[in-house]
């Protein structure tokens, strides 16, 4: 089977807590004792130095060294030598463009899918782990050469998923309506709406919903379904043609 190991987190910060505070135990369990250093990809934010400082402080507090890819003179070589990869949140379009600009799409895919290097993403970093960034919440502030992403899983994710607020007077589309519009297009893959506080752990061909909140699954042509932490989503990994059912 596929050696991939992924921890796809909806959000970096949960209300009332610090950076990655809500998932730090999951991070330690995921990386374990074999990983000594993590390669951080700060491309989703403009101030990469400040972003790297924040991430380094957190990971060092968990017992891991952190190298930021933007400090490397050869980003491709940094990926090839990495023990684990963490792509942080920010603007998904800016992030994906930088991954293409630095020729990292295929390199990261190979390291994760063939070499089994652990991959962690939060928010935008979770978006780019999927088929495409079509279901991001972000504004297209820059123009990547493609919306196709890393494809580490054969479906899409909507991080920071928000349920409709019955008391709101806002007349714009809800998140659910926007995802339904996406699924009006042919051959669009499943979309997993990850609420803040939720994350998906993928180990080989097994995927499990973790965290403190649930998720909402959208399949093309089907009514969305509600899922609690602990749900086995392995079927999403096995069958990428669920939208045709």
Automatic annotation (TrEMBL):
Pfam families: Peptidase_S51. The keyword Transmembrane does not apply. Keywords: Cytoplasm, Dipeptidase, Hydrolase, Protease, Serine protease. The keyword Protease applies. Its EC number is 3.4.13.21. Coiled coil: none annotated. InterPro entries: Class_I_gatase-like, Peptidase_S51. It catalyses: Dipeptidase E catalyzes the hydrolysis of dipeptides Asp-|-Xaa. It does not act on peptides with N-terminal Glu, Asn or Gln, nor does it cleave isoaspartyl peptides. GO terms for molecular function: dipeptidase activity; serine-type peptidase activity. Its main location: cytoplasm. This is dipeptidase E. The lineage of its organism: Eukaryota, Metazoa, Chordata, Craniata, Vertebrata. The gene is Aada.
């Amino acid at each position: 089977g596929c050696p991939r190991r992924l921890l796809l987190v909806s959000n970096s910060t949960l209300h009332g807590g610090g950076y990655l505070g809500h998932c730090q135990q999951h991070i330690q369990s995921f990386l374990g004792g074999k990983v000594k250093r993590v390669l951080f990809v700060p491309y989703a934010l403009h101030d990469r130095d400040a972003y790297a400082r924040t991430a380094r402080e957190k990971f060092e507090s968990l017992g891991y060294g952190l190298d930021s890819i933007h400090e490397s003179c050869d980003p491709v070589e940094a990926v090839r030598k990495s023990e684990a990869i963490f792509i942080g949140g920010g603007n998904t379009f800016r992030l994906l463009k930088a991954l293409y600009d630095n020729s990292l799409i295929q390199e990261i895919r190979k390291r994760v899918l063939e070499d089994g290097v652990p991959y962690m993403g939060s928010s935008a970093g979770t978006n780019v782990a999927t088929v495409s960034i079509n279901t991001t919440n972000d504004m297209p502030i820059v123009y990547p050469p493609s919306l196709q992403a890393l494809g580490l899983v054969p479906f899409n994710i909507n991080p920071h998923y928000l349920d409709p607020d019955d008391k709101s007077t806002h007349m714009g589309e809800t998140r659910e309506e926007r995802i339904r519009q996406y699924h009006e297009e042919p051959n669009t893959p499943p979309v997993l709406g990850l609420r803040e506080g939720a994350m998906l752990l993928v180990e080989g061909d097994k995927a499990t919903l973790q965290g403190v909140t649930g998720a909402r699954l959208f399949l093309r042509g089907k009514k969305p379904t509600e899922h609690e932490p602990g749900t086995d989503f392995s079927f999403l990994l096995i069958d990428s043609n669920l939208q045709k059912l």
